[in-house]
Amino acid sequence: MEEFLQDLNESQQQAVLYNEGPSLVIAGAGSGKTRVLTYKIAFLLESGYAPYNILALTFTNKAAREMKERIASIVGGPTAARLWMGTFHSIFSRILRVNADRLGFTSDFTIYDTSDSRSLLKSIIKEKDLDDKIYKPASVQAIISNAKNALITPQAYQVNKDLVESDERAKRPLIKDIYQTYWNRCQKAGVMDFDDLLLYTNILFRDHPDVLERYRQIFRFILVDEYQDTNFAQHLIIHQLSKGHNHICVVGDDAQSIYSFRGANISNILNLKSDYPGCKTFKLERNYRSTQNIVRAANSLIDKNKEQIRKQVYSENAVGNKIDVLSAYSDFEEGYMVANRVSEMKRLSKYAYNDFVILYRTNAQSRIFEEALRKKNIPYRIYGGLSFYQRKEIKDVIAYFRLAINPHDEEAIKRVINYPARGIGDTTLGKIIECGIHNDVSLWQVIATPLEYTLPVNNGTLNKIQKFKELIEEFIDANNKMNAMDIAELIIRRSGIFTEIYANRSPENLSRQENLQELMNGIQEFCSLRQEEGVEEIALTDFLAEISLATDQDEKEDDDSDKVTMMTIHASKGLEFKNVFVVGLEEDLFPAALSKNSERELEEERRLLYVAITRAEENCALSYAATRYRNGQPTAMPPSRFLKDIDPTYLNMPSELKSKQNVEDSIYSFSSRSLGMYSSSRSSFFKREEPVLPSKKQDLPLKSYSPRLKRLDAVNTSSVSGGSVSITGLDVGARIRHDRFGSGIVTEISGEGDNRKIGVEFEQVGKKQLLLKFAKFTIIK
DNA sequence: GGCCGGGGCATTTTT
DNA sequence: TGCCCCGGCC
Known about the structure:
Elements: H1 2-5, H2 10-17, E1 23-27, H3 33-46, E2 54-58, H4 61-75, H5 77-81, E3 84-87, H6 88-98, E4 110-112, H7 114-127, H8 137-149, H9 154-158, H10 161-169, H11 175-189, E5 191-193, H12 194-207, H13 209-218, E6 221-224, H14 232-242, E7 248-252, H15 267-270, H16 272-275, E8 280-284, E9 286-287, H17 292-302, E10 314-315, E11 323-330, H18 331-348, E12 356-360, H19 366-375, E13 380-382, H20 392-405, H21 410-416, H22 426-439, H23 443-448, H24 459-481, H25 484-494, H26 497-501, H27 507-532, H28 540-548, E14 564-568, H29 569-572, E15 577-582, H30 599-613, E16 616-630, E17 633-636, H31 642-645, E18 651-652, H32 655-659, H33 679-682, E19 735-738, E20 742-750, E21 757-762, E22 766-771, E23 777-779
Parallel strand pairs: 1-7, 1-8, 2-3, 2-6, 4-5, 6-7, 9-10, 11-16, 11-18, 12-14, 12-15, 13-14, 15-16
Antiparallel strand pairs: 16-17, 19-20, 19-23, 20-21, 21-22
Helix pairs in contact: 2-3, 3-4, 6-12, 7-8, 12-13, 12-14, 17-30, 18-19, 20-21, 20-24, 24-25, 25-27, 25-28
The structure holds a DNA duplex.
């Protein structure tokens, strides 16, 4: 440990060593926050805490994975693996599964992602004959999500005057009913959405003190990363768990709180002291990332925010260049200026394309930079877009997986009841849904026993439904007997998806085939990882539990080619680049027009720019355009007010801005749904009488899975090599090249027909099993 | 079921 | 200006 401490500066050391009571570590940008967190955990382990007594929460899978790896390198893999480390959602979904019976769920509940819940809301709105122009699914979803994050159940919502009146004012009085219906439907279907995972955890702890007490005993030390991004539900879970021992350390930076629109509440960190009396604050103020000019410029900007914890972030790196402010006539020209600068800088210095990032406020801005870079032959990559698990073909397969585990899952049923086409169209589905609502049962119950619920369909349809039911039952049955890999295969084959997707070699199908292959590789990798950890039988449930909470946010590690990066500022949090371009610094774009309603949101926009600037290690440039195509129209754009917020000492201003003051001193109007709207019900949450949910007796042992699925490739490459057709010349000893795994030697061949697989010893990645049906590789000799 | 065209729309998106 | 969704049509 001694030698580790030498890696830390004074304030980092203090933060690591103080563990007697609650502490808050304010970690300025680039101040070595992760290092403190990892060393602190290592230190706790050394001071006698068992790994399974430490709970360490992060917001992203990626952060959890990285921290786990770093801790493993200090204390060893097996110890690190026993830590309770993961995202809020993954850790508490594990806890919910173990205690599901207390909440009227089974441990097999499935998880709705954002699009599932939106789709359910859509159908509810339709069923209620409401106008979806007024009850926009997305807005309704946001309102419900906010309510859940504030721990307001439908019952509580209905009696909450503020909320009900606010909805009435907005001419949407029925939101409370939609919420109630949505809630009931999720229960019937045995599913939870992302927000439910946190809300039900709170309900579990509130209504079952014995459970809370048990976890208080287990989690003897709690650490939370990125605390500025916690919402009320998360805050309360932590508060409940740490009550008593108060061994809690939260790390964060209020200046980097940029997710309030997702429910994050900056006051959680600002007011931490009142929640944890005696809380010690440590400030990590030395920035190791950026030049002095960049740090000072960023400081001068964030200084304009009222709501913040004051700190003195400083750098002892070189003074560095001033921040360039680039003024363009048009968005078009802005693209060219940036592209030109990239090539100039690359030519004049030793920079690689990887050293550059273009950060924008909205995804729509990327186009123009793409064009400009392409014209100059500058390679680039764009982050954001459809994640792997959101691709249609993947969602389809996963819907079947979900049904094998939880056939009541409504959205999964809707998705695949007629995919591949089996003659159960919208009309029939509509009847099934109606019948389910009428009898207060799940769709699956109607499908399983249509006669019992007098489903009004003809015999032909009844037959088709029967077939579908048998199919799903086959999967359920198989799921009880087979491991993840085998059942995944079975599902893909028996559902008809295989036939569908491998029917022809159209480009779309080829891409689907690749994605399907990728999914199988993902399961494969998941299984082999788990096997390495000594788990023999890997159930599909475990895989599903993992990927339901996986997003594709992780960066593309296997693409190490030299490219300029483009992404939104939000996506850039936590990353660093030598050279940063922050583009589109214009009023109504950055700050966004909608954020000008309130000072709060404006401050968040300012923090967003702070985050953007502090990504830079060596150079930073801010650009704006005087005109920009917006909604088809060329629009005059005044420069962003934020340009005035930065101390000009650290800027190279264009002469134009120096002379005339066209940054308007605008009058903002404050309005509408302020952040306080949910506050009235919050504090009383733990006292409120809630209808106790019916409980079912079912107890499952805690499954010990460690979430770490290696990232799947989300990018469509167009290379295709047919391994699925002919396998002549493929024998033990043959040398093959695989798209992903590189080259290797075939060491064994096994299985028959569709099950035929080969074992390959790859040079880079070691031994892998490949299903011939799916594997794409070429035989080299 | 798939294709086409019109209309509405257009912040950010850790799980 | 583009994109996405829906409705109408084959």
